[in-house]
UDP-glucose 4-epimerase
Amino acid sequence: MENILITGGAGYIGSHTAVALLEAGYQPIIIDDFSNSEKSALEGLKKITGQDIACYEGDCNDAALMERIFTENKLSGVIHFAAFKAVGESSMLPLKYYHNNISSLVVLLETMNKHNVENLVFSSSCTVYGQPDKLPVKESTPRKKAESPYGNTKKICEDILVDQVNSKVALSAIALRYFNPIGAHTSSEIGELPLGVPSNLVPFVTQTGVGIREELTVFGDDYDTPDGTCVRDYIHVMDLAEAHVKAISHLKEKKAPFYDIFNVGTGNGNTVMDVIKAFEKVSGKPLNYKIGPRRPGDVVKVWADTAKINDELNWKARFNLEEALRDSWNWQLALSKKQ
Ligand SMILES: NC(=O)c1ccc[n+]([C@@H]2O[C@H](COP(=O)([O-])OP(=O)(O)OC[C@H]3O[C@@H](n4cnc5c(N)ncnc54)[C@H](O)[C@@H]3O)[C@@H](O)[C@H]2O)c1
């Protein structure tokens, strides 16, 4: 079995990707410092896969630890999820984000280069597009000025990959630009664990549904969209996990140096009200929400053109919005039972 290192593998998307890699015949190895995850994710992984997945506890900025991991394991690729992702916090603590998100990529690339590990999949985001002038957004759409230090770290990391590949080192990299990951593993053993008040819509919706939050505020209903609320491309995290497996396989067919970018979304835009209605349907209960003022900095509408990933990686989203919300809801119910 080929070993794939997953940085941030105890986190939301990383843990689902560990399952997908195992199912595809790869052996995942995790490094995580648990700065935004809990060890219970590893227990969930064991329940789903029947395996104890090796996990190094530590920081990817720790060059000595990275050196040890690369020495102890023959790796055929790396998927780099580890990063901080709270957009709001990044405006208050920019250096925390620049340090963690950028330095960890630099340390990783140095270690990969030293150990002749060529294949890297990097977690980027549709945030690099800002509010695109044309929809759906293609990979060739010019990136806009970042709205937050977090968004800027994704742009800078993409640029670092381009520079590194252009320097003709043996690196084959794919940046996956995720749209809006939601849902949880259908087993409800792993899912998103927002620490504190969730800044994303769906965890806020499910926490309101279960009574942890009193009320959801919809930020603006007077935008130029079908029902006036913001539009996003919500993608089931299990579909997103599969996209990483496809990206790793694709890299193996490419000769270094190589770099490419793929959007990972469903290709459909859904409004906040679509999410609320779909949630009410799958949970069978009304959601307590109110309409509030617009939130500064919100992108009004964005969804993906998925033709490139459909054609070149032979990947397509399988789950729809209701299925994803069903799994988010089941995960929330499972979490509430444990607490
Ligand atoms: N979830 C989203 O909405 C979304 C959208 C676009 C892009 N992304 C990107 O996808 C990646 C994964 O996101 P996620 O939602 O799974 O986040 P997450 O916070 O659930 O997972 C990230 C994991 O990385 C770990 N981590 C952070 N810094 C680390 C470090 N220096 N060393 C070791 N471990 C570290 C955290 O403990 C956590 O387990 C991130 O790079 C994020 O920016 C996420």
Q: What stands out?
A: The pocket of nicotinamide-adenine-dinucleotide is lined by residues 7-8, 10-14, 31-37, 59-61, 81-83, 85, 100, 104, 123, 125, 178, 181 (CB under 6 Å). The chain has a mean pLDDT of 97. The two ends are 37 Å apart (CA to CA).
